[in-house]
Amino acid sequence: MSTPLLISLMLGAALALAAFSVWRLYQELGKAETIYRDRPPPGFRLLWPVINVFANTFGPLLSAAREAALLARLRKGGQEYALTPRQFFAGKLVSMLVASSVVWLLAGELSLLGLLLAATLGFMYPDIWLNDHTKARNLAILKAMPFFLDIVTLSIEAGMNLTGGMQKAVERTKPGPLMLEINRVLRDVRAGKPRVEALRDLADRLDFAPVSSLVSALVQGELMGSSLGPVLRAQSDQRRTERFQRAEKLAMEAPVKMLGPLIMFIFPCTFIVLGFPIVMKFMASGL
């Protein structure tokens, strides 16, 4: 056998062995526990094995404090059972690589500053998505609270206890983030956790002022043994008032928000349309 052929065979075997090793590494590191987990968000689902590889490889770089902070943010956004802090951090890394690669492929020659800017935006995008998702989730909770509290109030005034009233309200209310959290409270109570602790855990998970106010009033009423009907009715009225105030605030902010597009786009076009005939008349008269 000639030497070039032997070298070619050895090189091919080495490449095949390297490809097999990378594939096995991808299979091992790309796995994640899915039995007790929710489906990941769509953006993460597209590159889920790659994200798990990055999570298992670079996850240990997260400090304990940073991991706890990410877990609190995921819990507040309702993604606690869909993503772990390490997977979320890996998603940021993958997003950084994807953004920089796409910009480099589309732009061709690009300066180092442009690549760094694209990588920074890609790294920040999962945080922006999580913040927007949390705001939308809190808004859905705020909208669902008055009707939910009305059902609980009617149930308690009809003779049920708080747990039974919450269960009845869950059955009568449309599914949504609030119902998911209340179901979790009911599961905790059925598992043996004291109702006061389950409610406090709800406030800690959401870290949302209206929910914290409601939980504080319920816990105080539970500990003092007072009737919860008037407390819940007052909370329902307060949530409705807050919702109307928020709508009024957005309506009052609309004219201010329109000033920017008005000045930048509408006014210049209007002045061009009005001024063009005048300019043409001046030019035709030789001025």
From TrEMBL:
Keywords: Cell membrane, Membrane, Transmembrane, Transmembrane helix. The chain crosses the membrane at residues 112-130, 259-280. PANTHER family: INTEGRAL MEMBRANE PROTEIN-RELATED, PILUS ASSEMBLE PROTEIN. Its main location: membrane. InterPro entries: T2SS_GspF_dom. It is found in: Cell membrane. It holds the Pfam family T2SSF. This is Type II secretion system F family protein. It comes from Ideonella margarita. It is a multi-pass membrane protein. It comes from the Bacteria.
